[in-house]
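From the pipeline queue, job 12 of 40. The input is one protein chain; the requested action is below.

Action: predict structure.
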Amino acid sequence: MAAASGPCAPVLRVFHIIPGEAGGTGMVFSKRDVEHIRAAGVHTRTFFLKSRTSPVILLAEWLRLRRELAAFRPDIVHAHYGTVTAFLTVLNARTPTVVTFHSAEFNHELGISAVREKAGRVLTRFAAKRADQIVCVADEFKRRLSWCAGKVSVIPSSVDVAMFTPQPRDQARAALGWSPADAIVLFYAGKNPETKRLDVAKATIERVRVVYGPIRFEILDGAVDPECMPLYLNAADCLLCTSQAEGSPTIVKEAMACNLPVVSVDVGDVKQRLHGVTNSFIEPRNAEALASRVAQVLRSGERSDGCAHLNDVTSDACRDRYLAIYRGLVAQSRPTELQP
């Protein structure tokens, strides 16, 4: 990307707002996106919103956000979620705003109260109207925002292919203390196993055990250190995805980057991601159909070629698309060429 001429050209300043804590596994995909944006030479600051439900904490966070925005004086303010996060962003920012929607803002999630879901939809719609640019992680959600399509881009959640890369299976198993002889299926339940349809996954595995034999079923609840995830994906034989609702599930792309075969339902952008990938399959959300494919993958003993299908969703590719959005907004609001 061309840099501005002259030694004193200003550097782009982007203020990121992410719900949750600075540490831990929550919103790790957004944290990684920020890291890659910073590595490109952008001056960034990240504000972690401590609560989206407590009125007392939210009031304190509102005031803290205003102070930090005034101190940092960003060119762009970027909210990495809808609902309360985006709402606070568009109300407080005095410079162009970007909001990335990750799909839960639009989907019906099991285990979430109707009142909370409705309130989130109202806040999300308000933020979408006020934001200068909207990013959705899949085409499906861009279509839902057809009333403001002129400012909507699609950038899937990215995968760091320097971190997630194929490794020898038995080497990864040795690092985790897993037996090299087991047939191992991985499932990511996260913090909302109801929406991930853990019930369907368990029924699928029970059926696989009938038609294939003993299976080690590893359920990840979101507590695994993100740095260890490549080991799990390289150590397993198959990733199973049965989610009721998704946007652009990072776990599927991470599995692809490690050449781990994926058996999934048609949810979010998974069908698009797995198109042309060997030894990976899309099936109805039916335990019988899913089990048949999982058993097929296990019998084959083969990996996939997923890492060859990730060019448009690597961290670098997605970072460059965000930078293009930032620079375009700055050019509209202040016609000054910025670095990097």
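Job complete. Confidence is low (pLDDT under 50) at residues 1-7.
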